[in-house]
Design a protein that fits this description.
The protein is mostly helical and 57 residues long. The chain is built from 3 helices and no strands. The protein has one domain. The chain is elongated.
């Protein structure tokens, strides 16, 4: 349970830090609809963040 909570807190921190990045992402989605490319990038970043969070525990 603590590990799950820690992962959620890491995700929350990332969301707070990356608000500008998310805004840019949404603008790009509206303009160019690069859904596939952005999903791959975001998935890669999410895996990296999860790995970091688990290593810190």
């Amino acid at each position: 349970m603590p590990r799950h909570g820690a992962t959620l807190s890491v995700i929350a921190q990332v969301k707070c830090c990356d608000l500008t990045a998310m805004a840019m992402y949404q603008r790009l989605m509206r303009r160019e609809k690069l859904a596939g490319t952005w999903q791959i990038i975001l998935r890669h970043n999410a895996v990296e963040i999860k790995g970091r969070g688990q290593n810190e525990l």
